[in-house]
Recover the amino acids of this structure.
């Protein structure tokens, strides 16, 4: 494996447009923006992390971070807190704003507040958003400086600030550049390099403080992966042991499915478990897992690389590997691991047959050893945490054009290109067609059972709450209000799914049929409310719309075998939207005729 050094200098063009040197105040504020961006990690499903600091010289007058997609942007929060002091101030952003389709609140907030200068650590890595906000700010008369574009790396402090902006969005940058989730291999070892005794006993190698850090790291991940040996030996739960916050999907990799019938991971009342195996493996046990609500995904050949490609298709950004040495070795050898997180405990257990964290890699000489870069050490209780990178975080992003039209050009191509894609996939809100998703941050208003108009923060909020509508139970009624108040769609989903799993008796009896009507009602309200979304839907022409979710009912499912109900509903609405558009044109022409006759 070719190991790269984490380098920022490589991304600085040789011809810099109006190069700028950051002052010490600038670097401190940019570091603070990256630190703020880190604040949202673990609160909800992993997503791009945004932080904003507004300052005059050394004094910060407003700060903010994005809690989750669908909540107020970091820039809006910082402007609100700065108030009148934002005028002629400098705003520091770790990452270029990249709002969901039709939402320019971040850029609008900075311009309307009178911010005169913006310093951005990294331009947006996604093609359809890259340079779009930068262009909009510059066209509004704001002076913008961007890392890798016109910021000179003079001195270690500037390099440190720009690197911090990379690290806080390492999963997002890596996924955008490599079409793979960002993966961390975590393990705990004794000072003599063992993860368990010769008998396999491992409770506990590391300290309570180190385990708490592991729980926090799980909460920052979309998924946690273990192998069959770990399930058989340790019977883990792989939960976050904390109230609220993101709950990662638990993934078990097993070729033969020689797994215990009763395991903690088969309890899916709080979060999902997926077992990944080879096609045709132990069909009887697959039925047992399915009866417990565990999803089984079959591969022609089960490899770490194939699993990572599958996780990418599911929209995962960050994956934590907590497997033993047998699985860790092929994961490293296949390039699936980008970072190593090793907790070193001040214990010695010895044993020739005691397992180690990484199995056989076929290296005969020390010169073949894989070298970690950007190694860091941190004392956690009695343990030492060592982290390092096996692969570099991407930093060489395409340059923003002179007028920064990359994003705008992409939008125009969506609307006007005669070569429309025949199949359009959508899933994450920040994807090109992500605004079609029920997770997009577009509030809707609909009447409840009492004909009172109620506002919902997203289609997903409404959908999850309707699972319990009309159920005469105080818990169900309380959860409807909690779901409505959820800060983001991911939290609404977690609340709705958790209650439905734990108390299926509270789900309305007609839900299997009613869910289609509920979703269509919410989607219709969304596209009737937002003309920009209606235009996006119409721009898809006659393309087949496919939900990227692996949900077998709403999405395409594994290998496209799902029912794709969400895509079908959107295509149905698209045909209606064409009629809405034609009707509007008729109304507009009639209004023009009346105005001419009266005038």
């Amino acid at each position: 494996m070719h190991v790269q050094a984490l380098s920022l200098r490589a991304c600085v063009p040789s011809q810099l447009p109006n190069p700028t040197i950051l002052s010490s105040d600038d670097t401190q504020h940019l570091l603070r923006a990256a630190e703020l961006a880190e604040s949202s990690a673990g609160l909800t499903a992993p997503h791009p992390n945004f932080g904003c600091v507004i300052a005059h010289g050394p004094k910060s007058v407003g700060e903010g971070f994005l809690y989750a997609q669908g909540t107020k942007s970091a820039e809006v929060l910082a402007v609100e807190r700065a108030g009148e002091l934002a005028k002629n101030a400098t705003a520091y952003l770790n990452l270029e704003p990249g709002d969901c389709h039709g939402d320019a609140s971040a850029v609008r907030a900075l311009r309307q507040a009178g911010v005169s200068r913006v310093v951005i650590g990294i331009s947006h890595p996604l093609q359809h958003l890259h340079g779009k906000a930068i262009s909009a700010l510059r066209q509004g008369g704001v002076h913008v400086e961007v890392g890798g574009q016109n910021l000179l790396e003079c001195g270690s402090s500037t390099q440190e600030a720009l690197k911090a902006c990379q690290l806080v969005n390492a999963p997002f940058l890596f996924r955008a550049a490599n079409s793979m989730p960002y993966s961390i291999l975590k393990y705990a070892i004794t000072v003599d390099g063992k993860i368990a005794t010769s008998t396999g006993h491992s409770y506990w190698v590391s300290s309570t403080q180190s385990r708490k850090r592991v729980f926090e790291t799980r909460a920052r991940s979309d998924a946690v992966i273990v192998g069959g040996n770990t399930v058989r030996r340790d019977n883990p739960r792989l939960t976050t042991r904390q109230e609220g916050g993101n709950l990662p999907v638990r993934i078990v990799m097993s070729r033969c499915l020689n797994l215990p019938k009763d395991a903690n991971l088969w309890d899916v009342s709080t979060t999902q478990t997926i077992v990944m195996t080879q096609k045709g493996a132990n069909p009887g046990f697959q039925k047992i897992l399915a009866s417990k609500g565990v999803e089984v995904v079959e591969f022609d050949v089960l490899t770490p690389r194939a699993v990572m490609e599958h996780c990418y298709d599911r929209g995962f950004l960050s994956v934590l590997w907590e497997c033993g040495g047998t699985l860790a070795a092929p994961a490293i050898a296949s390039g699936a691991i980008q970072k190593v997180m090793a907790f070193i405990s001040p214990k010695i257990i010895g044993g020739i047959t005691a397992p180690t964290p990484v199995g056989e890699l076929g290296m005969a000489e020390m010169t073949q050893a894989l070298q970690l870069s950007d190694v860091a050490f941190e004392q956690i209780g009695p343990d030492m945490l060592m982290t390092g990178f096996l692969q570099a975080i991407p930093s060489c992003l395409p340059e923003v054009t002179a007028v920064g039209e990359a994003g705008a050009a992409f939008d125009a191509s969506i609307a006007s290109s005669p070569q429309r894609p025949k199949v359009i996939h959508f899933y994450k809100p920040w994807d090109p067609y992500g605004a079609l998703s029920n997770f997009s941050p577009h509030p809707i208003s609909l009447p409840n059972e009492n004909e009172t108009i109620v506002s919902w923060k997203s289609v997903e909020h409404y959908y999850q709450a309707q699972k319990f509508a009309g159920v005469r139970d105080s818990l169900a009624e309380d959860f409807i209000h909690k779901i409505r108040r959820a800060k983001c769609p991911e939290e609404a989903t977690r609340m709705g799914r958790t209650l439905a799993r734990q108390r299926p008796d509270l789900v309305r009896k007609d839900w299997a049929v009613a869910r289609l009507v509920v979703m269509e009602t919410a989607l219709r309200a969304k596209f009737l409310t937002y003309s920009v979304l209606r235009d996006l839907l119409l721009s898809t022409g006659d393309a087949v719309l496919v939900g990227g979710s692996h949900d077998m009912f709403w999405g395409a499912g594994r290998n496209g075998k799902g029912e794709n109900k969400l895509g079908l509903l959107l295509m149905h609405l698209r045909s209606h939207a064409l009629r809405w558009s034609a009707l509007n044109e008729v109304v507009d022409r009639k209004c023009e005729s009346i105005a001419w006759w009266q005038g």
Summary: The chain has three domains: 9-168, 175-370, 406-585.
